[in-house]
Amino acid sequence: MMKRTSVLIAVMLCVSGLAIGQDYVDIGDLVSEAGHVMASWGPIEPANSGGAFGGVANCRTIWSSFDNSTNATIQMTFPSGTTQVAFRHLEGVADDGFQVLIDGNLFYTHTELQTTEMWFISGFNCSLTAGLHTVEFIATGAAWPSWATYGQVCIDWIEVGGGAVTNEAGTWGVVKTLYR
User: Fold this and answer.
1) Which of 42, 71, 127, 134 has minimal CB crowding within 10 Å?
2) For residues 134 and 111, what is the distance between their CA atoms, to the nearest angstrom?
3) CA torsion sign, 61 to 67 to 69 to 74?
4) 166 to each of 88, 162, 178, how far by Cα in Å?
5) Residue 133, SS3?
6) Distance from C-alpha of 57 to C-alpha of 82, rounded to nearest angstrom
7) Cα–Cα distance, 25 to 141 (Å, whole number)
8) Which of 102, 93, 83, 120 is nearest to 110 (CA)?
9) How far apart are CA 142 and CA 152, in angstroms?
10) Is the separation of the CB atoms in 79 and 161 below 8 Å?
11) Closest CA to 160 of 80, 105, 104, 47
C-alpha cells in the first residue's frame, strides 16, 4: 500500500505541473529555507523595502545594505552525475549581472539583459558527487543609486535536479523550467 501511495503522489505532482527535483528552495520563504545553510542573503523582499520586485510574493537579494556582501551562499543537495541547476532572478534598472559558483568553481555568468523589471529563469548543467554542495551567487554590477534601499540581484527560487520540464522564453534560450 505504501508503494502505491508514493507512486500516486509522484504522479499527482507531475500532473499538477510540479517536477520532483533533488533539492528546491523558495528563497524568501522561511519554511522552504529551513534546513538549508544560507549566508549573506539580504532581507525578505518586498516586505522589507516595500518595492515592487516584479510582483513576486517573496525573494531575497544577494547584495544588500543588510551586510554589504556582494555574494550569498546556500548549501543544497546534489545527486551524483550530471544534473540541472535552475534559478529565477529579477532583472531591472540596476546592473543585475552575477556569477554562480559551486564549491568555489565558476559554473555560470549572467550579463544584464533588461532595463525594465522582469523575472527570468536561467540555469546550467553540472556534474558533481552526490551530497551537499555550496552554491554561491556573486553580484558583478556596480551598485545602482537605490541600492541602499532595494539591494541588487534578486533571487526567487533555486532548484537542483530534474524531471518533467516545460518551456518558457527567457535568458537560457528556451528555458527548461523544472516546475511551475
Assistant:
1) 127
2) 22
3) negative
4) 14, 11, 7
5) strand
6) 32
7) 25
8) 120
9) 9
10) yes
11) 80
Residue for grid cell 533555486: 158
What cell numbers appear for 136 in the block? 554561491
Task: Find cell 529555507 and name the residue.
Answer: 33
Cα–Cα distance, 145 to 163 (Å, whole number)? 41
CB 158 within 8 A of CB 135: yes
pLDDT for the residue 164: 33
CA–CA separation, 158 vs 29, rounded Å?
12
Q: What are phi and psi of 30, to 5 degrees?
A: -60, -35
On the question of a cis peptide bond just before residue 46, with omega within 30 degrees of 0, the verdict is yes
**Rounded-to-integer distance, Cα 21 and Cα 89, Å:** 19
Nearest residue to 155 via CA among 105, 106, 110: 110
In order along the chain (180 residues), what is the average pLDDT of each group of 10 residues? 37 38 92 96 93 90 93 95 91 92 96 85 91 97 94 95 46 37
